[in-house]
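Hello,

I think I submitted the glutamic acid job twice by accident. Can you confirm which output corresponds to this input? Input:
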Amino acid sequence: MSDDVKQYRRVVIKIGSSSLTHPETGRQNLGKMEHLVRSICDLRNQGIDVCLVSSGAIAVGRAALGIQERPKATSLKQACAAVGQGRLMMTYQKLFAEYNHTAGQVLLTKNTMVNPVSRENARNTFLELFRLGVIPVVNENDSVSTYEMQFVDNDTSNVKMKFGDNDTLSALVAALVGADLLILLSDTDGLYTDDPRANPDAELISVVEELDDSIFGMAKESTGSSVGTGGMATKLTAARIATYSGADMIIANAADVRASLDISSGNYVGTLFKANKNPEFDLASYVTESIG
Ligand code: GLU
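Support: Only one job matched these inputs. Its output is below.
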């Protein structure tokens, strides 16, 4: 991706539950969170606006409450999220403060995006936070909302938008705040020509100039996680929203957060989807038609 290094000014970064927690216990992966926060602070120190979309509320709440099985009942997921979201923010606040930065929590629901007044209020809040130098930490407001916790099914052809996964949410946020880059930190290096776990000849695609049917055909479900909701299909939905709204999007591996957030590195490993601003793409009508 070295030819494509460019100077970004506003970046949205999404990280999923499986990257923020240890698979053995479900408890917070503090080393990973520390690297994530330090890299974000370094981007801020370069003058770049950064917004973090962080999952993990349900997973962290589950661990805190000692619940072994992935909860099925909505009320239990919502209770877990209520506990976990607070714990997550406590960790983020502490880590950001260590590097002299300030984080602010923004919890969104489907209605925030669909209702024009709420959407505008949310946008103004984000812009004010950026102006103040604060790093917004975003999640879905899982404890009060029921749309958000549907789990994406394994149908690889299902690339239609589903509010309820943070890949899509982060792309909506990127479009809302006029970001020029969205980074999805994932459990894979990027988009492959085939499922790399099943096909050793699968190749990593480093740059996608334009989203077309051949790209959507590669959307094999790649998540083996029991805590998150995203797969490659939701990442391509995110790519559509981000690139049409004028932002580049990168899928990169969360295994090495520091390398994956080193966006000026010439040796960057990941898949870059190039911005392809579509004059017909309008966030308001898109969310209303897709999830309204
Ligand atoms: N909002 C959910 C949580 O924080 C996660 C959704 C997702 O992983 O996409 O637990």
